[in-house]
């Protein structure tokens, strides 16, 4: 069985995998002209190189974790920027607008993060499900909207991410820091490669899977309950009763804009690295 809804950029197909209904969103990430990409590999005793990039079988890869970090950040910014619009969309009463604030997903926020909380942009508590004496406790505001998509401590989100692999193989690593012998004009003997980069124009492809429905997470777009405790309180007031319309609104009003707002990935930003364009592929 397959149903379709009209996505903003393309038709999103639902497919069933066992009892889980998933919608796949294929994405294309292009390294922007004039920039390069540097996602550092963990230092390993096997590589003598400094500044090696993350690779799988010698191919540069954008790991799912890097993309997830960038998407979480964009979702946070979107909820800050469109707080009023979303409050209206989700029928959130004026005195409950804190429900839409994202959390800082750590029990120990940094000083800079604490300032964001004090400025009222983020909620004070990070999202976590606590079970005390068989009582479920998710605080007054429940799980934040960003963790609804991305997951929180002890609770899965509705999105799954693949790694992103380059579209075509070839000469995509530019080892620019090889020292050139001033006399011969070729690479100096013993010159160490100090950094690897992925060239501008390189295209990576990957997939975000949206769990539309499954036995434990229930339905994407609904406020989840554990026992009789509603954990996604930000969705509790929404008047929309059509399940498909709810899922579609979350994809079109939140997920797609946040994806398109991703303009930076990886490290060495001070050297001009990391500028990317992200598009729905198809
Ligand atoms: Zn959260």
UniProtKB/TrEMBL annotation:
BP GO terms, sorted: defense response to virus
InterPro entries the UniProt entry points to: CRISPR_Csm3_endoribonuclease (IPR052216), RAMP_III_fam (IPR005537)
The keyword Protein transport appears for this protein: no
Coiled coil start-end: none
Domain CRISPR type III-associated protein: 37-276
Alphabetically ordered keywords of this record: Antiviral defense
Classification via Pfam families: RAMPs
Protein name: CRISPR type III-associated protein domain-containing protein
Organism: Pseudothermotoga lettingae (strain ATCC BAA-301 / DSM 14385 / NBRC 107922 / TMO) (Thermotoga lettingae)
């Amino acid at each position: 069985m397959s149903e379709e809804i009209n996505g903003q950029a393309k038709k999103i197909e639902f497919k069933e995998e066992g009892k889980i209904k998933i919608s796949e969103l294929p994405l294309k990430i292009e390294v922007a002209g004039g920039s390069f990409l540097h996602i550092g590999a963990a230092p390993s005793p096997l590589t003598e190189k400094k500044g090696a990039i993350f690779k799988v079988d010698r191919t540069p890869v954008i790991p799912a974790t890097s993309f997830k970090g960038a998407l979480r950040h964009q979702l946070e910014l979107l909820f800050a920027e469109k707080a009023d619009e979303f409050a209206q969309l989700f029928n959130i009463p004026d005195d409950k607008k804190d429900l839409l604030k994202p959390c800082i997903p750590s029990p120990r926020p940094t000083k800079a993060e604490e300032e964001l909380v004090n400025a009222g942009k983020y909620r004070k508590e990070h999202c976590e499900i606590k079970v005390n004496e068989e009582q479920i406790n998710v605080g007054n505001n429940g799980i934040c909207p960003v963790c609804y998509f991305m997951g929180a401590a002890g609770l899965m989100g509705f999105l799954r991410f693949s790694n992103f692999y380059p579209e075509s193989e070839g000469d995509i690593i530019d080892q620019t820091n090889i020292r050139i012998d001033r006399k011969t004009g070729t690479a100096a003997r013993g010159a160490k490669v100090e950094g690897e980069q992925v060239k501008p124009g390189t295209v990576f492809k990957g997939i975000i899977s949206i769990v539309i429905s499954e036995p434990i997470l229930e339905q994407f777009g609904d406020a989840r309950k554990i026992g009789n405790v509603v954990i996604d309180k930000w969705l509790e007031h929404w008047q929309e009763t059509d399940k498909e319309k709810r899922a579609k609104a979350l994809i079109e009003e939140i997920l797609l804009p946040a994806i398109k707002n991703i303009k930076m990935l990886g490290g060495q930003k001070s050297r001009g690295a990391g500028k990317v364009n992200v598009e729905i592929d198809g």
